[in-house]
């Protein structure tokens, strides 16, 4: 098949383009809940023609209510097609669509796609250029492949909860579904790599990631400490595990973050606090000494920082070239002048909620920027439009509706 087909281009043109970067790419979105939709959002926001495949409306919605903030934020810039993949007609329609697609993304349990006959090998037989992305809890095979995946389970199994929180207080999850989010972003990256490679080979491929793989990868330097040095990192609370003093410090009216990394910044920090004597104090003079005397150093720092407000110290530290920042709640984040300047919160007119805002892409591009061009679709909003693009007649579409295939 041609990967620049006119049916896809016509379909993409029916929605306002959020970007022209991926406007010639068609994506079939079989994903639910979070990791998969996070992946697909990266394609939709950059202009791909994303067709969200949903079960015919039955009042249930995996991933929360359609009007909910979570669903709204995950599913913008898409079209919706309802298909019952348990029916012959529904599977036939999906396979016909897949012949026109560049990408299919799914996050079913590993055996589901094969059981439905919509696995990579089946679809690639008639569309060898297809990039097929699978996200699972623990991988497509192996001893845990059949386990249901969930973000907090992956956070625990992937080691993150053992290094999060204060020492002695037990394991602590991170405040966002970081395993889901990272798996979705990595799957999107894999799709982009596969699409780039296709320019040379003309062939698609099956790309895979999982919540567990993403979480272990995100251990980063903490994982490398174990693999290379045999160290098993523990919890350090708000303190950086190796760079001292880096962490949360009390001020006169609250708390602030400081990141005093390296000897040069340490000297600037001591001078800015009026404690240049620390730079020659044997307890604090070197990084190993500061690590050994972390608690004593924190006590002395806070004896100074609690004499002035957070705003005072953040301004003073940044002026001195010492990284420092406020610790904002979520409301303060979106009221922050720099966040507003960056335009991350973007306006949209939701079909269910009216005028509102969603979180836009954190990437700026000089020629092909992204914006939220369309709110999440209603379930099945584009059924007739999409099916007609792959050759279904009005009569066939009506028959599919009557038979419960859409």
Architecture overview:
By secondary structure, this protein is α/β, with parallel strands linked by helices. The protein is built from 18 helices and 11 strands. The strands form 3 sheets. It has a 6-stranded parallel β-sheet with strand order 3-2-1-4-5-6, with helices on both faces. Helix 2 (35-44) packs across helix 8 and helix 8 (178-201) crosses helix 9. It is elongated.
Percent range of helical residues: 25-40%
Distance between the termini: 26 Å
Estimate the global geometry from the Cα principal axes: elongated
Uncertain runs are 4-8
**Major sheet details:** 6 strands, parallel
**Total count of strands:** 11
Structure class: alpha/beta
Query: Main sheet: which strands, in order across?
Result: 3-2-1-4-5-6
Number of continuous helical runs: 18
Nearest-integer average pLDDT = 94
Order of helices and strands: HEHEHEHEHHEHHEHHEEHHHHEHHEEHH
How much beta, percentage-wise? 5-15%
Task: Give the topology, please.
Elements: H1 6-13, E1 26-29, H2 35-44, E2 49-54, H3 69-74, E3 79-82, H4 88-98, E4 103-106, H5 112-116, H6 120-126, E5 131-136, H7 151-157, H8 178-201, E6 205-210, H9 211-217, H10 221-229, E7 246-251, E8 254-259, H11 263-272, H12 287-292, H13 294-305, H14 310-319, E9 324-326, H15 330-335, H16 337-342, E10 345-350, E11 354-359, H17 383-389, H18 394-402
Parallel strand pairs: 1-2, 1-4, 2-3, 4-5, 5-6
Antiparallel strand pairs: 7-8, 8-9, 10-11
Helix pairs in contact: 2-8, 8-9
